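User: I'm putting together a teaching handout on how multi-component assemblies are represented. Below are the sequence lines for each component of a complex, exactly as they appear in our records. Could you produce the 3D structure of the whole assembly as structure tokens, so the students can see both representations side by side? Please keep the chain order the same as the input.
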Amino acid sequence: MQYLLLIYGNEAQWDTKSEADRGAILKEYGDFTKSIAQSGHYKGGNELNVTSTATTVRVRDGKRLVTDGPFAETKEQLGGYYLIDAKNLDDAIAIAARIPSARWGSIEVRPIIPHDMP
Amino acid sequence: MTCPSPAPVHPATLWADHRVDIEHIFREESGRILATLIGLLGRFDLAEEAMQEAFTIALEQWPEQGIPASPRAWLVSTAHHKALDLLRRSARLESKREELQKIAELEQQLAGANDNMLRNLGSDDPFGDDRLRLIFTCCHPALALEAQVALTLRTLCGLSTEEIARGFLVPLPTMAQRLVRAKQKIRDAHIPYQIPPEEELTARLEAVLLVVYLVFNEGYSATSGDAAVRHELSSEAIRLGRILCLLLPRQAEARALLALMLLHDSRRAARVRENGEPVLLEEQNRTLWNQEQIREGLALVESSLRDGPPGPYALQAAIAAVHARADRAEETDWHQIVALYQFLMRLQPSPVVELNHAAAVAMAEGPAAGLRLIDQIETNASLRDYYLLPAARADLLRRLNRWSEAADAYRSAVALAGNHSARNFLFRRLMEMESRVKPTGGAPR
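Assistant: Of course. Below is the structure of the complete assembly, with chains in the same order as your input.
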């Protein structure tokens, strides 16, 4: 069973952190990623660039509408994700709880609906 | 502590008797049967559907052929076969790979199972692990609290969707939808059917205890809705509490919760008048209190307090125990109750606990001391719409013979009180106060 762990946090807060703090967090992320790769849970994952770099695309009546920024304004922004293989929801929750950002942001755990490649 | 009694099986001959017996068996056994089936089938929705089919077959066959010697084993085995039929049917319709794989599994399971093994599966769950797994699944924090409550009553207590809807004053379609969504989430998000590991057990048990206590309170505190259904909710909560104590004998808070529920429930006959109005604790006829429940509750409180530092349920149960030990209201040890509330305020601070503490202080040290604490609580906005706050103030002012101020407070309480009988009671007190306020004989000049 695959789950997508969506990492939400306050981007503004990240900007206020010192260089040393950021380095420590990034190292923690690195260690965490290595450990879930070793345990066979890791299927993929990335850090996302900040929402100010985001672009939203819609197509209405065949017309393309491109706008600046994310779809919705929220207090916490999507900052990254992991795709994991887990036995069940409890297993996935246990991994989500180990993501460093869980301590200040939040992790949304979403089951993946499997589709065969066409 | 006693286990829920096994269903009586009579070789009854009359259809009417049978019907009562059969329904009794269904109600008593459905939680265990469902738990066993989920363990066998690994799927919540399939297990539930198969159990319903087995019940239907039993209702057709048992009145003619008699109730089998082990009804539970019969039902488990019949449902197990039915599950295979159901899977085959849906696999034909949708030809899903997953379904086909499950069918192969089940066929193997059934081929390997002789009657003896099935009988064991049905009658033995020696450690109650299946039921415990089901409790933890139903009370999983990934489900909304209201869904946890509904699911627990539906699957562990065997209450119908309609009964649950009536108990919680929710329209039937809303409750049905709530249950469907919860079961979908269990299936689609793969909420596991397992007892949490030791390091998570305490936190997860807290969620389970909260659900059980909510069910109890809904049955005990609400004064609106169907009285019979509400009584049923409280009894089911107590039954669940017993099961938890039996299955998790080392958990002191589970024992404390059972004690708390028993001690509250012991006052059931004394706490409402025939017209549905509540009777204050100090005015209750204590000879109506259920002494058997009190004895059991007191023993459980003591045993839970012996197991290390008390949790919030142990403290609340200890407070209920102080009341239960007083044969007359005047004999209540209010100083001890004040001390217990102070402990509880530190452990689980909340404005409601503060209000109860203030009421206890008023009893121990006089109404003026209580009033000073209520003044402090009133500065907190979170209790602004809580009718018991002005009601408590009114009661203390009444005891201080400050009639006119008491009348004002009763007026605010009446305006906020949600349920009919509480409002009636407060209104009567308000009338009493107004009659005591002496007419001043003309407006001052």
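A couple of points students might notice: Residues 2-111 of chain A form a domain with the Alpha-Beta Plaits fold (CATH 3.30.70.1060). Chain A has one domain: 2-111.
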